[in-house]
Amino acid sequence: MKLGALTLALLTPFALHAQESIIVQSTTSTANSGLYDYLLPIFTEETGITVNVVAVGTGQAIKNAANCDGDVLLVHAKPAEEKFVAEGGGTMRTDLMYNDFVIVGPAGDPAGVGGMTDVEAALKTISESGAIFASRGDDSGTHKKEVALWNAAGVDPKAGSGEWYRETGSGMGATLNAGIGMGAYVMTDRATWINFGNKQDYTIAVQGDEDMFNQYGVIPVNPAKCPNVNVDAAQSFADWLISAEGQEAIAGYKVDGQQLFFPNAPK
Q1: For the chain, what are the domain ranges?
Q2: pLDDT at 153
Q3: H or E element, residue 177
Q4: Which of 18, 96, 228, 247 could, after both became Cys, cross-link 48 (CB 3.0–4.6 A)?
Q5: Strands 185-189 and 133-135
Q6: Is the CATH number 2.60.120.600 carried by domain 100-212?
Q7: CA distance linking residue 238 with residue 232, whole number of Å
Q8: What is 15-98+214-263's CATH number?
Q9: pLDDT higher than threshold 80 for residue 18
Protein backbone atom coordinates (compact mmCIF):
# COMPACT_ATOMS: atom_id res chain seq x y z
CA MET A 1 0.00 0.00 0.00
CA LYS A 2 1.37 3.42 -0.92
CA LEU A 3 1.88 5.99 1.80
CA GLY A 4 -0.53 8.83 1.07
CA ALA A 5 -0.14 12.51 1.77
CA LEU A 6 -2.62 12.28 4.63
CA THR A 7 -0.63 9.52 6.30
CA LEU A 8 2.58 11.54 5.94
CA ALA A 9 0.91 14.53 7.48
CA LEU A 10 -0.02 12.46 10.53
CA LEU A 11 3.51 11.25 11.19
CA THR A 12 5.27 12.78 14.18
CA PRO A 13 8.29 15.01 13.54
CA PHE A 14 10.47 12.23 14.97
CA ALA A 15 9.45 9.80 12.23
CA LEU A 16 11.20 11.59 9.40
CA HIS A 17 14.65 10.17 10.16
CA ALA A 18 14.25 6.54 9.06
CA GLN A 19 17.46 4.60 8.40
CA GLU A 20 19.55 7.08 10.43
CA SER A 21 21.70 6.28 13.43
CA ILE A 22 23.38 8.18 16.24
CA ILE A 23 26.03 7.47 18.86
CA VAL A 24 25.23 8.26 22.48
CA GLN A 25 28.19 8.69 24.80
CA SER A 26 26.72 7.52 28.08
CA THR A 27 27.39 6.79 31.70
CA THR A 28 27.50 3.08 32.51
CA SER A 29 24.66 3.24 35.04
CA THR A 30 21.98 3.81 32.43
CA ALA A 31 23.29 0.77 30.56
CA ASN A 32 23.87 -1.46 33.61
CA SER A 33 20.40 -0.69 34.90
CA GLY A 34 18.81 -2.02 31.71
CA LEU A 35 17.18 1.34 30.90
CA TYR A 36 18.42 1.45 27.30
CA ASP A 37 17.22 -2.09 26.60
CA TYR A 38 13.77 -0.88 27.56
CA LEU A 39 13.82 2.66 26.17
CA LEU A 40 15.63 2.52 22.85
CA PRO A 41 13.33 0.06 21.05
CA ILE A 42 10.42 2.42 21.79
CA PHE A 43 12.29 5.37 20.31
CA THR A 44 13.57 3.44 17.29
CA GLU A 45 10.15 2.01 16.50
CA GLU A 46 8.68 5.49 16.46
CA THR A 47 11.47 7.28 14.57
CA GLY A 48 13.48 4.73 12.63
CA ILE A 49 16.64 6.13 14.24
CA THR A 50 19.05 3.51 15.56
CA VAL A 51 20.82 4.49 18.77
CA ASN A 52 24.27 3.04 19.42
CA VAL A 53 25.38 3.45 23.03
CA VAL A 54 28.98 3.75 24.19
CA ALA A 55 28.73 3.13 27.94
CA VAL A 56 31.74 4.37 29.88
CA GLY A 57 32.35 6.47 32.97
CA THR A 58 31.00 10.01 32.76
CA GLY A 59 34.47 11.54 32.62
CA GLN A 60 35.43 9.36 29.65
CA ALA A 61 32.06 9.92 27.98
CA ILE A 62 32.60 13.68 28.13
CA LYS A 63 36.11 13.30 26.71
CA ASN A 64 34.78 11.13 23.90
CA ALA A 65 32.08 13.66 23.06
CA ALA A 66 34.64 16.49 23.17
CA ASN A 67 36.67 14.48 20.64
CA CYS A 68 33.59 14.39 18.37
CA ASP A 69 33.10 10.66 18.90
CA GLY A 70 29.36 10.93 19.44
CA ASP A 71 26.16 12.79 18.70
CA VAL A 72 24.57 12.99 22.15
CA LEU A 73 25.94 12.97 25.70
CA LEU A 74 23.90 11.40 28.52
CA VAL A 75 25.71 11.46 31.85
CA HIS A 76 25.41 12.39 35.53
CA ALA A 77 27.94 14.96 36.71
CA LYS A 78 26.23 18.33 36.35
CA PRO A 79 29.23 20.63 36.96
CA ALA A 80 31.28 18.73 34.35
CA GLU A 81 28.32 18.77 31.94
CA GLU A 82 27.88 22.52 32.31
CA LYS A 83 31.62 23.01 31.72
CA PHE A 84 31.36 20.88 28.56
CA VAL A 85 28.58 23.13 27.22
CA ALA A 86 30.35 26.34 28.28
CA GLU A 87 33.43 25.25 26.35
CA GLY A 88 31.34 24.75 23.21
CA GLY A 89 31.16 20.97 23.26
CA GLY A 90 27.38 20.82 23.51
CA THR A 91 24.48 22.95 22.37
CA MET A 92 22.40 22.84 25.58
CA ARG A 93 22.19 20.77 28.74
CA THR A 94 18.76 19.69 29.99
CA ASP A 95 17.84 17.89 33.21
CA LEU A 96 16.46 14.50 32.23
CA MET A 97 15.84 12.28 35.24
CA TYR A 98 17.18 11.45 38.69
CA ASN A 99 17.59 8.75 41.28
CA ASP A 100 20.06 8.47 44.15
CA PHE A 101 23.26 6.85 45.30
CA VAL A 102 23.47 4.24 48.04
CA ILE A 103 26.30 2.50 49.87
CA VAL A 104 25.97 -1.26 49.94
CA GLY A 105 27.80 -3.63 52.23
CA PRO A 106 28.00 -7.21 53.53
CA ALA A 107 25.49 -8.57 56.02
CA GLY A 108 28.20 -8.59 58.71
CA ASP A 109 28.48 -4.79 58.44
CA PRO A 110 32.09 -4.58 59.75
CA ALA A 111 32.02 -0.79 60.09
CA GLY A 112 28.61 -0.73 61.79
CA VAL A 113 27.10 1.79 59.38
CA GLY A 114 23.94 -0.14 58.52
CA GLY A 115 20.88 2.07 58.71
CA MET A 116 22.79 5.36 58.72
CA THR A 117 21.30 8.23 56.73
CA ASP A 118 24.19 10.70 57.13
CA VAL A 119 26.54 9.71 54.33
CA GLU A 120 29.48 11.87 55.44
CA ALA A 121 29.32 10.40 58.95
CA ALA A 122 29.08 6.91 57.48
CA LEU A 123 32.14 7.42 55.27
CA LYS A 124 34.12 8.77 58.21
CA THR A 125 33.10 5.74 60.27
CA ILE A 126 34.16 3.37 57.48
CA SER A 127 37.57 5.04 57.18
CA GLU A 128 38.14 4.98 60.94
CA SER A 129 37.14 1.33 61.20
CA GLY A 130 39.55 0.23 58.48
CA ALA A 131 36.76 -1.71 56.78
CA ILE A 132 37.40 -2.17 53.05
CA PHE A 133 35.80 0.29 50.64
CA ALA A 134 35.90 -0.40 46.90
CA SER A 135 35.89 2.68 44.68
CA ARG A 136 35.46 2.85 40.93
CA GLY A 137 38.41 5.24 40.77
CA ASP A 138 37.62 5.97 37.13
CA ASP A 139 36.49 9.64 37.00
CA SER A 140 32.92 8.46 36.38
CA GLY A 141 29.93 10.42 37.64
CA THR A 142 29.68 8.01 40.56
CA HIS A 143 33.37 8.41 41.34
CA LYS A 144 33.15 12.21 41.12
CA LYS A 145 30.27 12.15 43.62
CA GLU A 146 32.12 9.75 45.89
CA VAL A 147 35.19 12.02 45.94
CA ALA A 148 32.99 15.02 46.77
CA LEU A 149 31.41 13.09 49.65
CA TRP A 150 34.80 12.05 51.06
CA ASN A 151 35.87 15.70 50.91
CA ALA A 152 32.70 16.76 52.71
CA ALA A 153 33.44 14.13 55.37
CA GLY A 154 36.94 15.54 55.85
CA VAL A 155 38.56 12.24 54.85
CA ASP A 156 41.37 11.65 52.37
CA PRO A 157 40.81 8.03 51.29
CA LYS A 158 43.98 8.10 49.20
CA ALA A 159 45.86 7.81 52.49
CA GLY A 160 44.45 4.29 52.73
CA SER A 161 44.95 3.41 49.09
CA GLY A 162 45.86 -0.23 48.62
CA GLU A 163 44.92 -0.99 52.22
CA TRP A 164 41.32 -0.32 53.22
CA TYR A 165 40.62 1.86 50.16
CA ARG A 166 40.68 -0.16 46.91
CA GLU A 167 40.33 1.49 43.50
CA THR A 168 39.14 -0.82 40.73
CA GLY A 169 39.42 1.55 37.76
CA SER A 170 36.37 -0.15 36.26
CA GLY A 171 32.65 0.30 35.68
CA MET A 172 29.87 0.00 38.22
CA GLY A 173 28.96 -3.64 37.64
CA ALA A 174 32.59 -4.76 37.69
CA THR A 175 33.27 -2.72 40.83
CA LEU A 176 30.28 -4.26 42.59
CA ASN A 177 31.50 -7.73 41.68
CA ALA A 178 35.02 -6.93 42.87
CA GLY A 179 33.78 -5.27 46.03
CA ILE A 180 31.53 -8.16 46.95
CA GLY A 181 34.43 -10.53 46.31
CA MET A 182 36.58 -8.69 48.86
CA GLY A 183 33.81 -7.96 51.39
CA ALA A 184 33.99 -4.23 50.74
CA TYR A 185 31.52 -1.39 51.00
CA VAL A 186 30.65 0.09 47.59
CA MET A 187 28.86 3.25 46.54
CA THR A 188 26.56 2.70 43.59
CA ASP A 189 23.61 4.33 41.93
CA ARG A 190 20.40 2.71 43.10
CA ALA A 191 19.26 1.73 39.59
CA THR A 192 22.35 -0.38 38.93
CA TRP A 193 22.01 -1.99 42.37
CA ILE A 194 18.38 -2.94 41.83
CA ASN A 195 19.24 -4.57 38.50
CA PHE A 196 22.48 -6.18 39.74
CA GLY A 197 22.36 -9.96 39.78
CA ASN A 198 25.23 -10.93 42.11
CA LYS A 199 24.09 -9.39 45.40
CA GLN A 200 24.91 -12.45 47.55
CA ASP A 201 24.46 -11.35 51.20
CA TYR A 202 24.82 -7.65 50.40
CA THR A 203 22.19 -5.08 51.30
CA ILE A 204 21.91 -1.30 51.25
CA ALA A 205 23.73 0.01 54.32
CA VAL A 206 23.54 3.79 53.84
CA GLN A 207 20.79 5.71 52.04
CA GLY A 208 18.41 8.63 52.29
CA ASP A 209 20.85 11.55 52.54
CA GLU A 210 19.95 14.44 50.22
CA ASP A 211 23.67 14.68 49.37
CA MET A 212 23.28 11.36 47.53
CA PHE A 213 20.91 12.85 44.96
CA ASN A 214 21.87 11.72 41.44
CA GLN A 215 20.84 13.97 38.53
CA TYR A 216 21.19 12.94 34.87
CA GLY A 217 21.40 15.34 31.95
CA VAL A 218 21.19 15.10 28.15
CA ILE A 219 23.29 17.22 25.79
CA PRO A 220 23.37 17.20 21.96
CA VAL A 221 26.96 17.57 20.74
CA ASN A 222 27.62 20.95 19.11
CA PRO A 223 27.93 20.73 15.29
CA ALA A 224 29.85 24.01 15.29
CA LYS A 225 32.68 22.13 17.00
CA CYS A 226 31.98 18.68 15.57
CA PRO A 227 30.76 18.96 11.94
CA ASN A 228 30.26 15.19 11.70
CA VAL A 229 27.37 15.26 14.19
CA ASN A 230 24.06 13.89 12.93
CA VAL A 231 22.34 17.08 14.03
CA ASP A 232 18.70 16.37 13.27
CA ALA A 233 18.67 12.80 14.58
CA ALA A 234 20.62 13.78 17.70
CA GLN A 235 18.20 16.60 18.44
CA SER A 236 15.26 14.28 17.81
CA PHE A 237 16.59 11.86 20.42
CA ALA A 238 17.16 14.61 22.99
CA ASP A 239 13.74 16.12 22.25
CA TRP A 240 12.04 12.73 22.59
CA LEU A 241 13.70 12.01 25.93
CA ILE A 242 12.46 15.26 27.43
CA SER A 243 9.03 15.10 25.76
CA ALA A 244 5.97 13.92 27.66
CA GLU A 245 6.19 10.58 25.85
CA GLY A 246 9.87 10.06 26.62
CA GLN A 247 9.45 11.08 30.24
CA GLU A 248 6.53 8.68 30.59
CA ALA A 249 8.67 5.89 29.11
CA ILE A 250 11.47 6.60 31.59
CA ALA A 251 9.01 6.50 34.49
CA GLY A 252 7.61 3.24 33.17
CA TYR A 253 10.87 1.33 33.46
CA LYS A 254 10.72 -0.88 36.54
CA VAL A 255 12.60 -3.89 37.87
CA ASP A 256 10.88 -6.14 40.41
CA GLY A 257 8.18 -3.50 40.69
CA GLN A 258 10.65 -0.76 41.57
CA GLN A 259 10.96 2.41 39.49
CA LEU A 260 14.62 3.03 38.71
CA PHE A 261 14.61 6.55 37.29
CA PHE A 262 12.37 9.54 37.96
CA PRO A 263 11.89 11.95 35.05
CA ASN A 264 12.31 15.65 35.80
CA ALA A 265 12.87 17.42 32.48
CA PRO A 266 11.57 21.01 32.59
CA LYS A 267 8.06 21.36 31.20
Answers
A1: 15-98+214-263, 100-212
A2: 98
A3: helix 172-181
A4: 18
A5: parallel
A6: no
A7: 10
A8: 3.40.190.10
A9: no
